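Thread: Newbie trying to understand structure tokens

Hi all, I'm a second-year student working on a class project, and my supervisor (Dr. K.) asked me to get a predicted structure for one chain before our next meeting. I've only ever worked with sequences, so writing a 3D structure as a token string is new to me. If someone could post the tokens and maybe explain what I'm looking at, I'd be very grateful. Here's the chain:
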Amino acid sequence: MSKKIKILLCSDDDGLMVKTIKSVISNKGYEENIVLVRDQHDADTIAKEIVDADVVYPDKAMITREMIMSAEKVRLFQYGTGYDTIDLEAAGERKIPVCNMPGITAQSVAEHAMYLILALARNDRDYGEEMKGGKWNRGVGIELAGKTLGLIGYGNIGKIHARIAHGFGMKILAFRGNRERGNEGLDFVDIVDFDYLLENSDIVSVLLPLIKHGSCKTERFIGKKELIKIGGAGLGWLINTSRGAIINENDLIESLKNNIIKKAALDVYETEPLPENSELRKLPNLFLTPHIAGDTKEALVRRYTLIAENAIKVMNNKKPQYIVKELESVFD
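---
Reply by user tm_fold:
Sure, no problem. This is what the structure looks like when written as tokens:
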């Protein structure tokens, strides 16, 4: 007789999620009960379904202390890259592992960051739609070769982003918390101080995880002072494919209105989905995408496969992969 497992997915199904997870689970001899809560802001339904769930994939849904304490059966909270929406202290108290997926979407996010740069370089114009509409509005862009890209963060995504940009002939600067680790074999990358990067980059790309507390806090890491430095250097462009709250959104809006930041491109926002009346939607020097950097078919299949594989591990009383660093000591 197959064993049963309830997996709570706080996500809409993109056509791959349930299919991929079911395939992996069934091949391991489990009968799956997959529950989709499509609205990640539906806290009442999430609180109800979490009570008897074995595995939870919150995605961007808030998982509160109260939810964790009520989740009598939960053996795993499985995240994608960011895990800033869960009460880690409560999970640690319950000795429930919280895992993420380092590197699983790195290629996709790095490619999207480069796409945003290219969009700005070609004036954020949908020339294809204009042509189909009978127009012939030409524009003058810029070449990226010879421009300096500054990477704030130099993990899996940063290194791939650096290689792609280097292929375009760009110069690469990077800031990382542990400078002693150097450029890890990418000789074309210069590891520099934070202020030096801000003051010497044409384009700054933010690639940090969102950390809300402690000495490594990154929330509101970039504000008015930093934006002035970015805007005063080179092209004065800013890219964010990380988390919206890393940049002070109000400061960014003011800097764009006052042409301090000349152009910016964002995939992430302090509030998601981005409100219809957001000032960000009204700025002509800002290019927006709806938090899709990591959403490629290849990355999604890797993500959903890992959810299922880690689910099987915990159901078999084995340690899952990629327990977040804040909770590693709990499970040593």
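A couple of things are worth pointing out once you decode it. The chain has eleven helices and twelve strands. The mean pLDDT is 94. Feel free to ask follow-ups in this thread.
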